[in-house]
Write a structure and sequence with these properties.
249 residues; 8 helices; 7 strands; 15% strand; binds NADPH dihydro-nicotinamide-adenine-dinucleotide phosphate
């Protein structure tokens, strides 16, 4: 299935490494220009921008802490000018600070909620102007299976990801009349730096909880994102699409 992403202009927050990198490269492989943001990993982001350009499209890496709303507006303006518009936003930047609630500090709570949820508000708000001007757009927010089912030791993270779902459905209702769609991709257990190295016993326990019997790869999340970015999903908005090997059933 051709995804018709040729010449589309995209922004992936936290696109320098992990799932965000796979998303950025998949969009580029499908013909889209892709800008990425990073907070700390400049080398990884510049390397990813170079890999994006190998697909014959425009690539751009910008330093921007996703928590900063003013910076989000600046970044979106910069990309719109460099690319000549912005059609697709992927809110991917995210962190974990896991611990049981009795040990969780206010700082751990605030860091996770602001990085994972406020960032989604910041960038979604910033892209609406260019998207309305273009009479269309697609916003894809990266949630988590944990935002649906909860997980002990992740009250902050699960709350942020459940918040992303409520935010996305509300946004989808607000902007549908402008031909702007908003959806969530909810990954299960995906092998990245965030999930870290596992020993054999941990891996066995995780595999046992996943009907498909293995962790997912970032590229498997990226394919769902590119589908939601493209006109192939033109009648899908406000949806939460799990990419979790059946883990959330
Ligand atoms: P990684 O830790 O591998 O990568 C996180 C990315 O987010 C990095 O590019 C990082 O950039 C960026 N980032 C973090 N904080 C900020 C910030 N304040 N501003 C801008 N960018 C930031 O995580 P994953 O790739 O695994 O996760 C990506 C998304 O997928 C997250 O939203 C995560 O919650 C979600 N997810 C992941 C799952 C998994 O199993 N891995 C499962 C379900 C959801 P930098 O290094 O520059 O800080």
């Amino acid at each position: 299935m051709a995804l018709e992403l040729n010449q589309k202009n995209c922004l992936v927050t936290g696109g320098g490494r992990g799932i965000g990198k796979a998303i950025a490269l998949n969009l580029a492989e499908n013909g889209a220009n892709v800008a990425i943001t990073y907070s700390r990993s400049a080398d990884a982001a510049n390397q990813t921008a170079a890999e994006i350009e190998k697909h014959g499209v425009k690539g751009l890496a910008l330093q921007a802490d996703a928590v900063d709303g003013e910076k989000a507006a600046e970044v979106v303006n910069q990309i719109s000018e460099a690319f000549g518009g912005l059609d697709i936003l992927v809110n991917n930047a995210g962190i974990t600070k896991d611990t049981l609630i009795l040990r969780m500090t206010e700082e751990q709570w605030d860091d996770v909620i602001t990085t994972n949820l406020k960032s989604v508000f910041n960038y979604s708000k910033a892209v609406l102007r260019p998207m309305m001007k273009q009479r269309g757009g697609s916003i894809i927010n990266i949630g988590s299976v944990v935002g649906i089912g909860g997980n002990a030791g992740q009250t902050n993270y699960a709350a942020s990801k459940a918040g992303v779902i409520g935010f996305t459905k509300s946004l989808a209702k607000e902007v549908a009349s402008r031909n702007i769609r908003a959806n969530v991709v909810a990954p299960g257990y995906i092998t990245t730096d965030m999930t870290g190295e596992l020993n054999e016993k941990q891996l066995e326990a995780i595999n046992a909880a996943i009907p498909l019997g293995r962790p997912g790869e970032s590229e498997e999340v990226a394919k769902a994102v590119s589908f939601l970015a493209s006109p192939a999903s033109s009648y899908i908005t406000g949806a939460v699409i799990p990419v979790d090997g059946g883990m959330g059933m």
